[in-house]
Amino acid sequence: MSKKIIAPSLLASDFANLQHEIEMVNQSEADWFHLDIMDGLFVPNISFGMPIVEAIAKYAKKPLDTHLMIVDPDRYIKTFADLGVNHLTVHYEACPHLHRTLQAIKAEGMKAGVALNPHTSINLLEDTIQDIDIVIVMSVNPGFGGQSFIENTYLKVRDLKNLIERKNSSALIEIDGGVNATNAKKLIDYGADALVAGSFVFKSEHPTETIKQLKEVIA
Ligand SMILES: O=C(CO)[C@@H](O)[C@H](O)COP(=O)(O)O
């Protein structure tokens, strides 16, 4: 069975101690860094941009899994590649030419991801799933950390897994929003490969131990 992945979201970290938070993830059993880029247009919140991604890239020793919650993401594909990002995920809802966008991400040497809002059907990936490396299934409405997990996500993950198998795609399924030690195992059982965890990790008393706990739960 392939290794299951935990990706702490730095959105919930202490930005005043960012280097310390990055080192914590470096030293932990986490697999990826998850970076949430929000523009205040696609989502009603602004998070952080290029200078912070550059600072993170300087210290991070694990892949940078970057989730663009922005309109017109094509404008910044090369910039993120130059900053050292490994996975670049765009929103289905923000890409009128999704196939072209995926090719452009891959041409820059990054894994190409597509994120689906809670209202967006997995069936819309029928014609692109073979070109996708990662599908982020949003289990909250994007824009904020610390929200409650949407229960319908389990069935969506199951249906997406079926689509991936039916189409012989190698896409990984990543779940983002409200992930904790209670829902993690069930998400993996329904077909998830990677789990993003923000508040559950960074707001806990011992983040390294919390990451270890998540890894054990999904092993
Ligand atoms: O993309 C997003 C929110 O839009 C997520 O990555 C959250 O940052 C996850 O945070 P928690 O729900 O785990 O606190």
TrEMBL record:
It catalyses: D-ribulose 5-phosphate = D-xylulose 5-phosphate. Its EC number is 5.1.3.1. Pathway: Carbohydrate degradation. GO terms for molecular function: D-ribulose-phosphate 3-epimerase activity; metal ion binding. It is an enzyme of class 5 (isomerase). Substrate binds at S9, H67, G143, F144, G145, G146, D176, G177, G178, G198, S199. Pfam families: Ribul_P_3_epim (PF00834). The keyword Ion transport does not apply. It comes from the Bacteria. Belongs to the ribulose-phosphate 3-epimerase family. This is Ribulose-phosphate 3-epimerase. It comes from Flagellimonas pelagia. The lineage of its organism: Bacteria, Pseudomonadati, Bacteroidota, Flavobacteriia, Flavobacteriales.
